[in-house]
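Re: weekly structure request thread

Next one in the queue (292 aa):
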Amino acid sequence: MQEKFQFDLKVLLGCICIFGSAFFFYLATVIIKWARIKGLQVDTASFVFARFLLGFISVLILMALKKKKIRVKKKRYLIGRTVANCVAVYCFFKGVDLTSVAQANILNMTYPLFIAIFSWIFLKEQRDAVAILIVFFAFAGIWLILTPGKMSFHLDSLWGLASGISAAIAIMYLNLSRQVHDTETILFFLFGLGSVIIFIFFFNKMHLPQYSELKYLFFCSLSAIVGQYLITLGFKYVTAIEGGIISSTRILLAAVLGPVIAMDPALSASGWTGALLIFVGNVYLTLRKARR
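Done, posted below.
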């Protein structure tokens, strides 16, 4: 009985950590919107750079404490993961900046749908006709999010969708990289090389932040890093199916909390329908993958 209680307690801890990670990932985007409401002119690239730089510092500290060393086996996987993740984070933050927090988060969480599509195209042994059918239903949800209330959409909405596509590529590279690299090596390249890439491409849009700007850059980055570590800890105690479903609750968090803490307009009926279609599609694909 005591062993069962300890097991259940660990599972509960894992579920809380995964849900906490969804909240902190969402909170990082809310902080960007708060900065805009305050009238601060901080470019999206600065938020992305701060996130990678602070993440790199935290990984270096963690590696020093654990006395871990970098062991590179397949560099192309690490580079592919880093580049795709840089694109995903930049597009995600840009979507938050130009649209709403809710819309950007919901569209970012379409990445499981694109993983199913890419798997169908590139991995013949993983082709699943039923999964693709579910993806088409979920894409109806994407359309409802992009065109709330009318049959037209703003081009700015495509930033959020682009973040979902590039995040799917990043996750696929992560799956390949996890087969041959440890967590510290992956995060070292992700944050270190990511910082360099963002600085090289966007250095002309960055400036030395003032104190008021620095606060938002720091707390946005800290929130995202806390989310990253919580999801890493959570998956130690829960299965991939449980973690995948709980992670998808960020869609519902964004829909519910948007008007409350991010000053977003409330989702319309079509927006809620779209969010639920994407959420149900993610959950179904996670369950189906686990069964297979």
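The two ends are 32 Å apart (CA to CA). The first helix runs from residue 2 to 37.
Next request, please.
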